[in-house]
Write a structure and sequence with these properties.
Number of strands: 0
CATH architecture of the largest domain: Orthogonal Bundle
CATH superfamily of the largest domain: Tetracycline Repressor, domain 2
Helix content: over 70%
Order of helices and strands: HHHHHHHHHHH
Distance between the termini: 43 Å
Radius of gyration: 19 Å
Largest sheet: none
Strand content: under 5%
Number of helices: 11
Length: 205
């Protein structure tokens, strides 16, 4: 029974993510989420107290929905992570919904910067490793750069979403790195970094 409850909760999150991603919070209907999940109202409210609770849970689950790319910690893995996220945002509905709800949250009725802070922590970890490996210029402040990168990424992905449903997002993130590397990495390190906007599996082949 415990395993079934875990599976039901995950199913609700996935179907809610589909609905939130398609139309945003205000257009989402609990009845539609229940229909897609094939559950009763009682089953849904057993796991989530309200539509707002469900939306907030989806928003906070975005980091857990992505497996970071392999490789040693450092600047290259950070670049690979941001490019992987660009492709995930084209297909991963839980991530897409979480990002959309994070952008919409003031309109929804809650304010929580923890999704942004979680990604800043991921980026900070890779930047700290990069600094230890001598991959960053001496003037770079890791904490400030991590927050800046999250802000830049948020803006770029939102612009791409509005412009063409994120079809060009990997290319835009690659552009971001081509310019950012000039300011944060020594020339020889910047020249060694691989910034490939192709899907990871295709790039590996």
């Amino acid at each position: 029974m415990q395993q079934r409850a875990v599976e039901t909760r995950q199913l609700i999150l996935e179907k809610a993510a589909e609905v939130f991603d398609e139309g945003g919070y205000r257009a989402a209907r609990i009845a539609e989420i229940m229909h897609r999940a094939g559950i009763t109202q009682g089953a849904l409210y057993f796991h989530f107290s309200s539509k707002l609770d469900l939306a907030r849970t989806v928003m906070l689950a975005q980091r857990e929905s992505v497996v970071l790319p392999p490789g040693p910690d450092g600047l290259q893995r950070l670049i690979d992570t941001t490019l992987l996220l660009a492709h995930e945002l084209q297909t991963n509905k839980l991530l897409r919904a979480g990002v959309r709800l994070a952008v919409e949250q003031e309109e929804i009725g809650f304010v929580d910067d923890s999704p942004y802070q979680e990604w800043a922590e991921v980026f900070r970890g890779q930047l700290e490793a990069a600094a230890t490996r001598g991959e960053l210029r001496s003037h770079v402040e890791v904490d400030r750069l991590a927050v800046l990168l999250v802000g830049c990424y948020t803006g770029v992905q939102h612009f791409s979403k509005l412009a063409n449903a994120r079809a060009d997002l990997p290319d835009r993130i690659a552009d971001l790195w081509h310019y950012m590397l000039l300011g944060i990495a020594p020339p020889q390190v910047a020249a060694e970094m691989i910034v490939n906007p192709e899907p990871p599996l295709l790039a590996a082949g």
